[in-house]
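Cross-check.
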Amino acid sequence: MTSKRGKQLLHLSALLGSICLCTACSSMIQPVQAWEKGKLAKKAMTFDADALENKFAEHTYSSKESAFGGNGVGGGGCGCN
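Predicted model, tokenized:
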């Protein structure tokens, strides 16, 4: 059995340890340099490289599943928006 003071000390040390860990990890993040930004702007770095193809896939999925939502597409499951 631990006393109430012992529990408080344990919680305080856990909180202090978490704060120290978060501040230590934040110093590891380095900003993107100016010459590296060109690599990040390439089309291959996007999640969906072709916007039209992505819209078509969302439309087909909502029509086949007879449901919609969660992806910003309005309309019913029949495919008629």
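The helical segments are 4-26, 37-40, 51-65. The chain has a mean pLDDT of 75. Passed to J.P. for a second look.
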